[in-house]
Amino acid sequence: MEDSFQSAEELAAAMRAGEVSSAELTDAAIARIERDDKAVNAICVPDFDRARAAARDADRARARGEDRPLLGIPVTVKESYDVAGLPTTWGMPAYRDHVPAEDAVQVARLKAAGAVVLGKTNVPLGLQDIQSFNDIYGTTGNPWDLARTPGGSSGGSAAALACGFGALSIGSDLAGSLRTPAHFCGVHAHKPTLGLAATRGMAAPPAPPLPIEPDLAVVGPMARTARDLTLLLDVMAGPDPLTLGKAYEVRLPPARHERLGDFRVLVLDEHPLIATGAAVRAGVNRVAGALAEAGARVERHSALLPDLAEAATLYMQLLISGAVARFPVEAHEQLRARVAGLDADDRSLDAVRLRAMLFSHRDWMEANQRREVHRHGWRRLFAEFDAVVCPITPTPAFPHDHHPNPMERRIDIDGVTFAYFDQLVWAGLATMPGLPATAVPAGRSPEGLPVGVQLIGPMFEDRTPLRLAELLEQRIGGFQAPHQGC
């Protein structure tokens, strides 16, 4: 495989052996972006001059005998991260000229580890979509089919990886924003345990870069291989040095097992609130079959599994109540009228989302308490299982849908339509309790589109789903370069 598609681990080995320089890798990555990204539009803010300078610095450092984890590796960064001297807009036109003066903590960690930042990748407006388009930078296409979405909100990062624009990228995940783009573009991603990686400098403008602890959102790594995910997570993990980092250091427990046949896995492919498309079900079954063939214990049902319908409801309540916290007062009056018109017996996810827009603090506290009950249920389940294998979304990448009101969009699942945001229930399964989840490629749809699944693991045992991902990659294969788009 050419250098553009080699793993970070392979590139590092080649540089250590003197077979290639960081300057050469960086020039090759830039040339590839300039050649192929006009069609895909993954890199929205290039930073090539500084990347070349950083690559030269990396080569000089290596010549002095230095060897940092990412020394000389070309990477990209999601647009929502602050990078000193580059705009951070979150796709919002009002902030097209917002240029932070300092790097986000994770960008600083990348640079300290020796990474060469090629530029920033595209996002949806406010990071609030399962697609990646905005009025500043335009639309990012899926490298496998440019008429389809690469996912969101880390869609630009996933598309960049699939096209060979750098070996690694960093994104964020609140509603599957790491996992869904990985699933749609055929790459790997890891949603860390809530709180494992500091998020300072990943806030919507014009908010200052404060060391807050988000309720659901995390930052995490994206890569073309599972081993590269672990490499990058080790760079990203750790509390903010302004707060908990003053007293604590991270020491993640090792993976529970080293052999695929030793894993105990619960496999899910059905959800009570939404259908699972045939292509995604086939991907889940392919992983389940590989596990069973390797001798792993594979179960399809467990009384220990927290209620999936209630989990989806809690997730939507926590997600939406937080998202609308800054709505203008007049919008609340309109919402009250809409909620008052709901049938008292309406328990659809659309109704859940609408009611959550008017949550009081008391309502949120009640939902949070139920979340703690679910977390305890997951602890009990992970005493019997090591991981849960399940979908990320019910379908492969869908065609671009830019309807201005996302609440009126629909998602087609094998000929049956559902509310657009209902497809988030699988992503929310790990997000709501704060569990780690690794997205892995699991084959192709009949149309040739990538299909991924997620491996959900126990809280703060991120190395367990990551190791499982690595073993599955060895058995069923992983990333393949797309045949069109780039």
Automatic annotation (TrEMBL):
Organism lineage: Bacteria, Bacillati, Actinomycetota, Actinomycetes, Streptosporangiales
PANTHER family per UniProt: FATTY-ACID AMIDE HYDROLASE, FATTY-ACID AMIDE HYDROLASE 2
EC supergroup of this enzyme: hydrolase
Keyword hit for Signal: no
EC number(s) from the headed UniProt entry: 3.5.1.4
Amidase domain boundaries: 24-464
Keyword list, A-Z: Hydrolase
PROSITE patterns linked: AMIDASES
Protein name: Amidase
UniProt cross-references to Pfam families, sorted A to Z: Amidase
Gene Ontology MF terms: amidase activity
